[in-house]
Design brief:
Helix content is about 20%, strand content about 20%. The chain is α+β, with helices and mostly antiparallel strands. The strands form three sheets. It has a two-stranded antiparallel ribbon. Strands 3-4 form a two-stranded antiparallel sheet. It is globular, with a radius of gyration of 18 Å.
Length: about 110
């Protein structure tokens, strides 16, 4: 007969934490941008680990706050701050949408300028 202990199901005996509470505990809410305080990637985007999957923090914020649109795979920022996870600053977009936004805000390499 197998021996049962607190290490079954891979949880090592720890209670599973609420991922949404854990996510928001890593956010500093300022008057405008809500800044991710956890790990970031080389571009400065927040990283959030959940069930063995790594999410960009802005994407997870959109997922839990407004939902993701599969036809628009990117989560873009109105504030252009990669650490920002404020749902009011995020929008679903395509790569074309993101490039248009980048050009409109003049935040692109000089090689793209006319």
């Amino acid at each position: 007969m197998p021996r049962h202990n607190s290490y079954h199901n891979g949880n090592m005996g720890r209670p599973k934490s609420d991922p949404i509470k854990r996510f928001w505990s890593k956010v500093d809410k300022t008057d405008s941008c809500w800044l991710w305080t956890g790990n970031t990637d080389r571009q400065g985007y927040g990283l959030f680990q959940l069930d063995g999957r790594q999410w960009r923090a802005n994407r997870y914020s959109m997922h839990i706050s407004k939902g993701l649109d599969n036809s628009k795979p990117l989560v873009c920022h109105t504030c252009d701050n990669p650490r920002c996870v404020n749902p009011d600053h995020l929008w679903n977009g395509t790569n074309t949408d993101n490039m248009r936004d980048k050009l409109a805000k003049d935040r692109h390499p000089s090689s793209y300028k006319k």
